[in-house]
Automatic annotation (TrEMBL):
The keyword Cell membrane does not apply. Belongs to the flagella basal body rod proteins family. NCBIfam families: flgK_ends (TIGR02492). The gene is flgK. One of its GO terms (molecular function) is structural molecule activity. It holds the Pfam family FlgK_D1. This is Flagellar hook-associated protein 1. Residues 478-514 form the Flagellar basal-body/hook protein C-terminal domain. Its main location: other. It is found in: Bacterial flagellum; Secreted.
Length: 521
């Protein structure tokens, strides 16, 4: 049955409910600029009325309401937008990392005339120009000095590219390891939060702020690797990455396995299998290191090998000045370029024989046993762009530079020098396309530019999508100070009205208690 003090209870509940709503709004205002915070709302519901339907319910007509209760403090979060945001952020981070790598590669390989034309193409032009001059002045030592100097500058440009690519590769390898360690750190923190939330949620306790911290970590993880989140139903979650591999399962963490392969590169695996993610900075760094740089390095190496092979072929068919003065007419058979790594491991006794001429550069002992087909290459030939070096014999004695044809017509014969200068436009047989050096290099740089432009376009597109989805998320769970201030006024007025109702009930009870029974006294 109804109590005389029912009105007091209704007013009390109203005061407490509006006070909870006010405090929740104040919490929102306090965290308006907190990264990762989700707006909260006190969900008010009508309290259970009296009499409650049942076998012992009263026979009075209707039901008397019992005021208001706070059902829960809700987080205003949209799971679908969270999922969409994390998918787009993984893709955006992937293309942003690749775009940064392409920007760095273009900065290293840029041919900038304003900087003195110090790139590979400028060095190659100087090389061909020096041999043009040598063809006209084959007997002059100055022209020979310039030709050797231009060749060394070209080799320096080769080495600069090789060292730059190695440095970028090393930086990317370090980045792969660092990101993998960050993923493991985030996973452990998510598991810790899972444990705290899982201990409290089953008892009806509020864990909103911890869930915000966990969602913020999930957003950070999504920038590093693609992920999926599964709600386990007890407040905890399961996080899978790279197409379904479990990283976090409740309070259990299966960390990424970080190792090193035979080439000294950092490897990342999960569950014994190499990680193959669909987005994120980790996958982008691995692809940039293993695909983009490897492909670019391969094309540079192929260009360097084809160039040095054709220069050597033409130079070895010529006759040097020393042989001409000695009355010899056979080709000098001395290569112009050799392998730097081969020089570093060469037996000094063998080098002395090559230097004295008692051992030929085309001797069978110099055939590369690993060449395909056998006998098609020599061990002294450079294997890549960072392995090319000018033959030290030519550097020490410029008279060994073959400028004349075979047989020579005299010390002014510059036919071989002219043939070397003609490589400016002549095709290189060692290249599959048969292009000239300049054309092949232009194709290489052009392809790099196209890939960079495409990646940059995808980066901008994905960044725009992330921004759009994030705006939608913020419209749901972001704090609007204008809206919160409006709610503060609403709850303030409701609290004041509840207090006024309690005062009215107090006055009624005072009249009832202190004024009843006075008649007849």
């Amino acid at each position: 049955m109804r109590s005389t003090f029912t009105g007091v209870e209704i007013a009390r509940r109203a005061l407490f409910a509006q006070q909870a709503a006010l405090q929740t709004t104040e919490h929102n205002v306090a965290n308006a600029n907190t990264d990762g915070y989700t707006r909260q709302r006190a969900e008010l519901v009508a309290a259970r009325p009296l009499p409650y339907p049942g076998l012992t319910m009263g026979a009075l007509p209707g039901q008397i309401g019992m005021g208001v209760d706070v059902a829960r403090i809700a987080r205003l979060r949209d799971g679908f937008l969270d999922r969409q945001y994390r998918e787009e952020r993984a893709a955006a981070a992937y293309y942003e990392t690749l775009s940064n790598v392409y920007d760095r590669l273009q900065a290293v390989l840029r041919e900038d005339p304003e900087l003195g034309g110090t790139g590979l193409l400028a060095a190659a032009d100087a090389f061909f120009g020096a041999f043009d001059d040598l063809a006209l002045n084959a007997e002059r030592g100055e022209a020979r000095e310039q030709a050797i100097g231009a060749a060394q500058s070209l080799v320096d440009a080769f080495w600069h590219i090789a060292e730059s690519l190695d440095r970028i590769r090393g930086d990317l390898d370090f980045q792969v390891r660092q990101i993998a360690e960050e993923v493991n750190s985030i996973a452990r923190r998510i598991a810790d939060l899972n444990g705290q939330i899982g201990r409290l949620r089953p008892h009806g306790l509020m864990t909103n702020d911890w869930e915000d911290a966990r969602d913020h970590l999930l957003d950070e993880l999504a920038a590093r690797v693609d992920l999926e989140v599964v709600d386990l139903g007890n407040g905890m979650i399961r996080v899978t990455i790279a197409g379904g591999k479990t990283l976090v399962d409740g309070t259990d963490v299966r960390p990424l396995e970080i190792g090193t392969d035979g080439a000294g590169r950092t490897t990342v695996a999960l569950g014994g299998e190499a990680l193959q993610a669909r987005g994120g900075t980790l996958q982008a760094a691995m692809e940039a290191r293993d695909r983009v740089l490897a492909d670019l390095q391969g094309r540079y190496d192929a260009l360097a090998r084809a160039f040095q092979a054709e220069v050597n072929r033409r130079h070895m068919a010529g006759v040097n000045l020393r042989d001409i003065l000695a009355g010899k007419t056979d080709p000098s058979n001395i290569p112009f370029f050799v392998s730097r790594s081969w020089l570093e491991t060469l037996d000094p006794a063998v080098w002395d024989q090559l230097q004295s001429g008692t051992l030929s550069w085309t001797d069978a002992q110099f055939l590369d046993p690993n060449a395909d087909p056998p006998g098609s290459a020599y061990v002294w030939e450079a294997r890549g762009i960072g392995d090319v070096a000018v033959n030290p014999l030519l550097v020490r004695d410029r008279t060994l530079l073959a400028a004349a044809g075979a047989p020579p017509t005299g010390i002014a014969d510059g036919r071989t020098a002219k043939a070397l200068a003609a490589l400016r436009t002549a095709g290189l047989p060692g290249l599959p396309t048969g292009e000239a050096f300049g054309e092949a290099y232009g194709s290489l740089i052009g392809r790099l530019g196209i890939d960079a432009q495409r990646t940059d376009h995808l980066r901008e597109m994905k960044a725009t999508l992330v921004e759009q989805v994030d705006r939608q998320r913020q419209s749901v769970h972001g704090v609007s100070l204008d809206e919160e201030m409006t709610k503060l006024i609403e709850y303030q007025h409701a609290y004041s009205a509840a207090a006024r109702a309690l005062t009215a009930i107090d006055q009624l009870l005072d009249r009832l208690i202190n004024g009843t029974g006075l008649v007849g006294r």
